[in-house]
Amino acid sequence: MDNKNNNTQYLKGLFEIAILMMLQKKTMYGYELTKELKESKCFSISDGSIYPILKRLTANDYVDVFSEEYEGRIRKYYRITDLGKALVENRLKELDSIIKYFKEIKGMD
């Protein structure tokens, strides 16, 4: 397996938290989320990949979805719920603990 595939697998689990954190800033539509993820230095995502993630986040009540007309077209927008905000907070605490542990192993703490 090449390094790019390894990075993709590693980062795959972080897509949800990144999406939820972006939605904490503002309500967004799917393509907008994809575009922002693509512009990041960390994530690479294909155009259609975001929708199964959004569907899963919606099904778990971490995200609400609503439709609105924009320039004559109906667009689905996503916003984070209180449950989603709590998940972000918990996941960030977990990540902090993991980073702290790695630093301890490396002898940085």
Protein described:
The protein has 109 residues and is of the alpha+beta class. The protein has one domain (9-106): Arc Repressor Mutant, subunit A, CATH 1.10.10.10. It has five helices and three strands. The chain has a three-stranded antiparallel sheet with strand order 1-3-2. Strand 2 and strand 3 (73-80) form a beta hairpin. It is elongated and about 60 Å long. The model has no long low-confidence stretch (mean pLDDT 88). Residues 19-88 form the Transcription regulator PadR N-terminal domain. This is PadR family transcriptional regulator. InterPro entries: Metal_resp_DNA-bind_regulator, Tscrpt_reg_PadR_N, WH-like_DNA-bd_sf, WH_DNA-bd_sf.
How helical, in percent, are the residues?
A: 55-70%
Q: Just name the CATH architecture.
A: Orthogonal Bundle
Radius of gyration: 16 Å
Order of helices and strands, N to C? HHEHHEEH
Unreliable stretches, pLDDT < 50, 5 or more residues? none
Helix segment count?
Answer: 5
Pfam family, one: PadR
Protein name: PadR family transcriptional regulator
Characterize this entry briefly.
It is built from 5 helices and 3 strands, in the order ααβααββα. With 109 residues, the protein is of the alpha+beta class.
What distinguishing features does this structure have?
61% helix, 5 helices, 109 residues, alpha+beta, three-stranded antiparallel beta sheet, Arc Repressor Mutant, subunit A, Tscrpt_reg_PadR_N, 3 strands, elongated, Metal_resp_DNA-bind_regulator, PadR family transcriptional regulator, WH-like_DNA-bd_sf
